[in-house]
# Entry
Amino acid sequence: MNTYKSLLLALFASLFVLAACNRNKSSDSGQKTAVVAKGLYSFGPEIRSFTDCEEGREYWVIDSAKTLELAYSNLGFEKPYTPVYIEAECHFIKSDTTTVTGDYDSTMVVTKLLKISKQIPEGPCNQ
# Structure
């Protein structure tokens, strides 16, 4: 009987450890690694897009920081969709193919706006 209790206790301990390990893996996979993206951002009633200066890839933009759209509006453009240069901390997620974002390779989720400027720097962004 004592062996049975020891075996049962070992089984429960093993299950507890496996459950704890599995929980840690799933929480790590939910975290996104932030990167700094530099490129051209365009904003208007139907479009929120970002074009990476280095690779030329275009992304749909989600402004989770709630500062990018406001900063763009504060630049005072008379017409929408005028591109501006931005640098932003962000991460990328797969675009939803059932919405307008499905036309883009990925969606860029902005977590922090670092820089916004009407002046587009010389180099790949200005070609």
